[in-house]
Circularly permuted type 2 ATP-grasp protein
Amino acid sequence: MSTATQSHYYDSQSFYDEMFDKDHSVRPHYDTVHRLFGRMKPSELMLRQNALNQRMMEEGITFTLYSPNQSEPLERTIPFDYIPRVIPKQEWENIDRGVKQRIRALNAFIHDIYHSQRIVSDGIIPRSMIVSNTYFRPEMAGMDVPGGVYITASGIDLIRDEKGQYYVLEDNLRSPSGFSYLFKGRTLMSEIFHDLFLSSSVQSIERSLNCFLSSLRSLAPNGKSDPLIVLLTPGAYNSAYYEHTFLAQQLGIHLVEGRDLVYKDHKIYLRDMRGLRQVDVIYRRLDDDYLDPLSFNPDSLLGVPGLMNAYRAGNVAIANAPGTGVADDKAIYAYVPEMIRYYLGEKPVLQNVPTYILSRKEEREYVLEHLNQLVVKETSLSGGYGMLIGPTASAKEIRSFADAIRNNPGRYIAQTTMMLSRAPVMVNGSMSPRHIDLRAFALMGEESHVIPGGLTRVAMKEGSLVVNSSQGGGVKDTWVLNR
């Protein structure tokens, strides 16, 4: 990158940049990447970009966008930027340690609130925050889940501030998405940028699929050595259906809809050409409400009537367990550092973004006076919805959120506006900075495993802080170095 181009690259507010240091020099772990892209001609870059786009179209690597301005949902290939994000080995080891610690504490919390509720009795978390939580499922009270594992697969969203410090932004514990983009992105980069990949000594993610399958197998009732595992999808019209088909194929498990399963004698069976076969593990990709119309939403046509009866009888495992959403509620998020100290007796490795609980009068009053400086989130929503980004919001939007907070303060939290780090993306043959985050995927079974690198999500619109795919965000391959 030329000095002139670098100068233009920095014509904006100061953020932590993943590739470039403050003096505009290239960070050492990005040397190989910077050198290769610096010497490639625009025509060659365009050829590789076209090859990448063509592969994504052929393989159907898509995401469905829903917009109130459109009569029909728009299915498109997810924007994929081919400049990889690079993370040094030592930096990743700290992330790996912090994510594993966090999911251990969250898993302990979920078990506790559906059993003795010690954390409530000891005054760490108010009881009202549990019982009034949208995702709290009384049906899970007193149930012992297979292996004590509630959150088999989780996605922990991380960001970096202007000093390069990592923070946890959100915990996604119900049915986190993005696995397919991580694995397919790596396949495409290793093929289309084969020369760069081979010269970069990148940690492999191949064994992570085996870890995923092992985690699901470990849940099988009675320790079956060859359990029948299915992935339960809402169907082809779901925005993440591509991912459902991809994972089922890669894991070698059955892709099913609710109508493919039947409840009988407190067990769940798969209908196929050989008749009825007992299902041992269900990796579900639909929300609690739709799992079982006899236990949850009676109008659901997507789930399996009687599933919860079979679950309670111990004849089938569900991953992730129903009711895990109580721990990824954005108000509960504020208490995770305390959970780590309480359940594990450890100091948190990864810090939370400073968060205000709006049911507390003093914090609510402060937030209402500083809405133009803060980010406000509706606790039960995800995907970038129900948010106010104060520094970029209009006066009308701020007034609307202020009224909503006064009317129902427990429905919202507020957070310090973080200066999300940036990484270069390729725009018309030259590098341009975009804000990013990192979704670290953790798998829990007999052992815990964090997929090396995870998925870097990119706010493709210049200046935007919203990285969610449902809001038009894109992705990058994330390389953890072996040295």
In short: The chain has 15 helices and 22 strands. Residues 90-167+204-344 form a domain with the Rossmann fold fold (CATH 3.40.50.11290). The CA atoms of residues 377 and 387 lie 5 Å apart.
